[in-house]
């Protein structure tokens, strides 16, 4: 127990002893005052420090964040047993040793059963406060840690996505300038037309490269313009076929994905008038497909690998759906997932920090509600018992609210600590996680 808590406990013990001495002691003598102080300090330190050590021990062996349900069960069992033992010890020392109001046989015969039961309720109240405080502190730490982790995940994903998008600008410009350089020598007029078309296309690249997703319609229109630019260079050596469903136009794909794939088709295949390269862009189920007949050319230098790898990585950051690649002796096909909705941010696959904080906040409210209910029960029921025994000792009616409310508190505890619906949800998540591994 910390020094600050010990000082607070001493002040509470002293204040309690003053109340009992001046309010309930008939003979105001120094001996009675010292006895009252000793007894109050004994109760305070044994019950408070005992529960504190139990709570600290359980925090180390069974942290709330790792096994909430298990910890709750162990806490309930341990505090019931420990507080019963500590209360019987304190009452024995008070009534048998200090006050000599009864013998050992009389004490254990049941004469002090009500006092023991009442004191146990007070001890459980103290223990409930200590465990609630410990749980709140650990939950706060866990929530903060989770929020920080989610922020780091989101920042990492955004940084990775930005890095991938920044590859597109210089990559496209470099390849386009290479094509333009070739055309200047081969056909200056075509080179001039190519320059005009390239300026339009590059404007689209600058507009779309900062977006996570664009509509299929925008990407198809851009692809048509880019295909015209390629036709300017290759003429009859390349042929393009578009067959995309109209209903897919309002869906979404990764920007510049078609341009990169079209560029790959040209880069990795040879094309002549006698053996033209045929590139098809069409819809297939929930994907947008780019397919070309295989006419593999020998690579003079190793490919940079930016195109297809870039698309795959950007899709992996936005959705769980994969980019599929099919290759046979006759054709090469890439299937791009067509997304129905557009995410607001990169971290769609992960819980954002706001959601993590909301979940933590909701959990705290549930547990605060339970501990408030338990605290009220531990205060009100003993008060009702006292009122019942004073007003009508022959008619014990306090059992009804004690049992009824007690069942309600138990049910509340089951709900708060995840033994009901929360346990089912947890198991479902565990099964799904195992299947996804």
Tell me what you see in this structure:
By secondary structure, this protein is an alpha+beta fold. The chain has two domains: 3-152 and 351-436, no CATH class; 187-349, Histidine kinase-like ATPase, C-terminal domain (Heat Shock Protein 90, 2-Layer Sandwich). The protein is 70% helix and 8% strand. The chain contains twelve helices and seven strands. It has helices at 3-24, 30-61, 68-98, 104-111, 113-186, 188-208, 216-234, 257-268, 306-318, 353-391, 399-416, 421-436, and strands spanning 214-215, 238-243, 252-253, 277-284, 287-293, 324-327, 331-337. The strands form two sheets. The protein has a five-stranded mixed sheet with strand order 2-4-5-7-6, covered by helices on one side. The radius of gyration is 38 Å and the shape is rod-shaped. Residues 345-353 have low confidence and may be disordered.
């Amino acid at each position: 127990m910390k020094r600050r808590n010990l000082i607070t406990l001493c002040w509470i013990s002293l204040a309690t002893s003053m109340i009992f001495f001046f309010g309930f002691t008939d003979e105001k003598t120094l001996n009675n005052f010292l006895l009252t102080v000793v007894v109050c300090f004994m109760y305070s330190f044994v019950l408070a420090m005992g529960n504190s050590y139990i709570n600290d021990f359980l925090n180390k062996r069974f942290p709330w964040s790792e096994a909430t349900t298990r910890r709750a069960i162990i806490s309930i069992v341990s505090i019931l047993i420990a507080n019963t033992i500590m209360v019987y010890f304190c009452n024995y020392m008070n009534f048998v040793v200090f006050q000599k109001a009864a013998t050992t046989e009389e004490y254990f015969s049941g004469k002090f059963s009500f006092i023991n039961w009442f004191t146990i309720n007070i001890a459980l109240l103290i223990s409930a406060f200590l465990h609630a405080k410990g749980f709140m502190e650990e939950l706060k730490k866990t929530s903060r840690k989770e929020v920080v982790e989610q922020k780091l995940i989101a920042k990492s994903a955004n940084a990775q996505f930005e890095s991938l998008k920044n590859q597109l600008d210089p990559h496209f410009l470099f390849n386009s300038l290479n094509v333009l350089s070739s055309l200047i020598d081969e056909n200056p007029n075509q080179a001039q037309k190519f320059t005009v078309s390239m300026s339009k296309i590059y404007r689209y690249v600058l507009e779309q490269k900062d977006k996570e997703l664009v509509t299929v319609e925008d990407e198809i229109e851009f692809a048509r313009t880019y295909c015209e630019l390629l036709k300017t260079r290759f003429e009859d050596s390349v042929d393009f076929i578009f067959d995309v469903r109209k209903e897919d136009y309002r869906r979404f794909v990764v920007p510049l994905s078609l341009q990169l794939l079209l560029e790959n088709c040209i880069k990795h295949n040879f094309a002549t008038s006698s053996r033209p390269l045929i590139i098809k862009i069409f819809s297939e189920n929930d994907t947008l497909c780019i397919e070309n007949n295989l006419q593999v050319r020998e690579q003079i230098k190793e490919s940079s690998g930016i195109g297809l790898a870039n698309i795959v990585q950007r899709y992996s950051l936005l959705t769980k759906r994969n980019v599929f690649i099919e290759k046979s002796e006759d054709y090469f096909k890439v299937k791009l997932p067509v997304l129905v909705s557009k995410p607001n941010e990169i971290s769609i696959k992960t819980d954002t920090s706001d959601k993590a904080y909301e979940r933590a906040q909701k959990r705290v409210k549930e547990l605060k509600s339970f501990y408030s209910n338990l605290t009220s029960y531990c205060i009100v029921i003993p008060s009702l018992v006292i009122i019942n025994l004073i007003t009508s000792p022959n008619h014990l009616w306090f059992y009804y609210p004690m049992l009824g409310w007690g069942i309600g508190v138990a049910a509340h505890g089951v709900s708060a600590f995840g033994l009901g619906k929360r346990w089912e949800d947890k198991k479902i998540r565990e099964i799904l996680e195992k299947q996804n591994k």
